[in-house]
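Figure 2 data, in text form.
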Amino acid sequence: MNVTINQLPVMSEQMNGSVDKAEQKQVRAAQDFEALLIGQMLHSIREERSGWLGTGDDDASATAFGFGEDQLAKALTRAGGLGMSKIIAAGLAVKDARADKKQSENSI
């Protein structure tokens, strides 16, 4: 079974009852992973420059900026992000299809 990126749901908000729960979990996991990577990239940019606005950070602002980076990363991923979540979800779907095929062959 060949699964292409175009066959997978793009956004978790677009998922409906026609997509099974396993596929929904795969897409969400892929999006969460991509959001984590984007968040880490944003964090490293901020750390490199000593703050987003060029000022020094204290503990409260570091926490606030960290939360903002996480939310921005999630929003970017929901809007398509870097496209990595599609590739990851496609890979997970292929792996599941192979496992299902192997299981059905073993039960015969």
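Caption note: The chain has a mean pLDDT of 76.
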